[in-house]
Amino acid sequence: LEPIHPKDQAMNTPEQSQLGKASAYIDQYDASLLFPIPRAGKRAEIGITGAAPFFGADLWTAFELSWLNQRGKPQVALAHITVPCETPNIVESKSFKLYLNSFNNTRFADAAEVQARLRADITEAVWRGATVQSSVGVKLIAPEKFDMEPVHELDGLSLDRLDVECTQYQPAPELLVVESVDEEAPVTEVLVSNLLKSNCLVTGQPDWGSVQISYSGLPINQEGLLKYLVSFRNHNEFHEQCVERIFMDIWTRCKPVKLAVYARYTRRGGLDINPFRTSYPQPLPGNVRTARQ
């Protein structure tokens, strides 16, 4: 299937999206509802002006996907969508929800046609304004397989065990320090926290998440790292941008040899977004939800 090509929106800004605005819920298929936003502006804020020092992807889960079969009978599925972080755009999440709702009263031949349409439309949106280098991944989970979907918390040593005093609620990268070089040997460890919270860039609505930080290098002071993660509490930024900010702050201040940052955010509007960024090539984590998702 060839993707629909709506008018060029390469310079979209978050403020131009449907976030925080009354929206008509269109229930007939409409690919033009997808609203891509360039990654470049926010990346420039954190010092990325050329090639990013990371690989990875944004792992989406759509919990509210439905369409009609050829006889008009509703069908439902879960969708796992993988958007490479090399794409020039993200898709604003409310527009994604509105786009998915446009399937609700549209007839499709079968699930394979729905999957192909999702892949074509989302690929076009995230690569808009650039040459398509790879397709997004789309996997549909049929109802008979819902019971096989696991729930699992992020693996690692919990930072939340630490009894720390927190006073900063805007990103404070100065809290990130490594232990004394003279006293500590390099380590490899995986640290997790459930205390990540940020806010929507446009509406200020809360976004709740869990984060996993895997690294090799001089040991990072764990109290400082936990305070740093908590410092995002009143920060307004999209999920993908928060994870890239966390990655870059740790990368530049703690200088690990290897680093991976993975966050799983609770769903809003029937969607969750789970960004993963790594300094070295490795398989993507499985798109496995946590209990809060």
* DSSP, total strands: 10
Structural class: alpha+beta
Q: Which runs of at least 5 residues are low in confidence (pLDDT < 50)?
A: 1-10
- The percentage of residues in β strands lies in 25-35%
Separation, N- and C-terminal Cα atoms:
32 Å
Helix fraction bin: 10-25%
**H and E string:** EHEEEHHEEEEHHEE
Total helical elements: 5
Sheet with most strands: strand arrangement: 5-3-2-10-9-8-7-6
Overall description:
- This protein is α+β, with helices and mostly antiparallel strands.
- Helices cover 19% and strands 27% of the residues.
- It contains five helices and ten strands.
- It has an eight-stranded mixed sheet.
- It is elongated and about 70 Å long.
- 36% of the residues are buried.
- Residues 1-10 have low confidence and may be disordered.
Q: What are the salient characteristics of this protein?
A:
10 strands, eight-stranded mixed sheet, 5 helices, elongated, alpha+beta, two-stranded antiparallel ribbon, 27% strand, 293 residues
